[in-house]
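User: Can you predict the 3D structure of histidine kinase? Sequence below.
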Amino acid sequence: MSPEPAAGPREPAPPLPGAEPAHPLLDRVMRLRRRAREFDRRHPRVLDAVVAAAVALVALSDFLFGDGGRPGADGFPAFAPYAFTAAMALALWWRRRYPAAVFFVLSTIVFAQSVIGLWLPSRVSVLFAFCTLLAFHTLASIGSLRLFAWGAAVIAVEMVLMVLVLEDIDQPALSLLLILGTVTAAGALGLTVRVHRMYTAALEDRARRLEIEREQRERLIAAAERSRIAREMHDILGHNLSVMVTLADGAATLAGKRGEESAGALRMLGDTGREAMDELRRVLGVLHADERDPRSLSPQPGVDDLESLFERVRAAGLIVTCRTSGRLGHLGSGVQLTVYRIIQEALTNTLKHAGGPAAAAVTLAVDDGQVHIRVVDSGGDTAPPGGRRRETGRGLIGIRERAALYGGTATIGPNGSGSGWVVDVVLERTAALHGKGDSST
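Assistant: Sure. Here are the predicted structure tokens for histidine kinase:
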């Protein structure tokens, strides 16, 4: 029987409906956008410096080479426009570090320019307005919300005063509506960016927490399963040691009556066995501290109990067939317990996930050096499409832990039929004797 491929890397999940590949041009734009964000994350001051330099160069070129007249205001020095522009460009350089302070400085510059009647070329005026909107957007996206509310009130009052009182505009109502609408759009866009950033951060944090919780849950399940296996091994080893001590004491008594020299060695063997039992109780006995289930006092199940297990599973609605080969009765008690638990967990997993009606085929083979356990189910009518099931359950982790206990391997995954599932375990056992025999159930 050829083994199934190892259940290591999983097949990639199929794409979601409607998740077709993006257009090459859009894909290139998105890559450039990601690269720009990564560069800005590594060098945050470079972009601010580029924006400030662009504003200064555009304004200076318009001052020097524009044909709309020389900027200025009555009673103010000729360098006043240049000073206003330099102050605005310098403030933009600190835009993302001090968003509230930069916004109030820029809005004050624009309002002061209107109050003193400083005439600027139309392109520079638009540039000043754009810088103010950019600072307002930055305040909305990364600044304090309380200061953003104050900033909205301040810019609204300034715009009303500029349009209705300070500036001579033909249609002040329409102009005020357009200006306030533009300011509102800039603030709303900044708030949208802020909400999107918070939502993305929350999703990333939740993903990290879920990953940590999943890893912790798997570790706890594995630890609990190891503890359970250790308790069972404690019972098995304790029983075997008790038998060994009893036989050694009996043989020592008989040898003493016959006057044989081996009596002393047999008594030493019995004493050594009792010391080993005491040490075993000290090391593993603590695992029974929380064990209060009366069923823990019952004998551990083995291969002979598989038929009763199959009857219980059949009563739950699962069709189970079993085929065995080899001398199962010659397996050690620990190997028999492991075989029983692996088949039990595999059938339980089928009942939980396969849906009904479903069927499971169990194959148990014993040869000279291995015990081969294979459980294949049909998946049922309500099974997940493609045989996909969660592999983070306690049962499947327990199967792998039990297989590792005997140096074996466990292969768990879809069986290739579209909805079925296969559990294939090979144990390296030394407790089975040579021999063959076939039986079917």
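Residues 172-258 form the longest helix (87 residues). Residues 1-21, 291-297, 431-440 have pLDDT under 50 and may be disordered.
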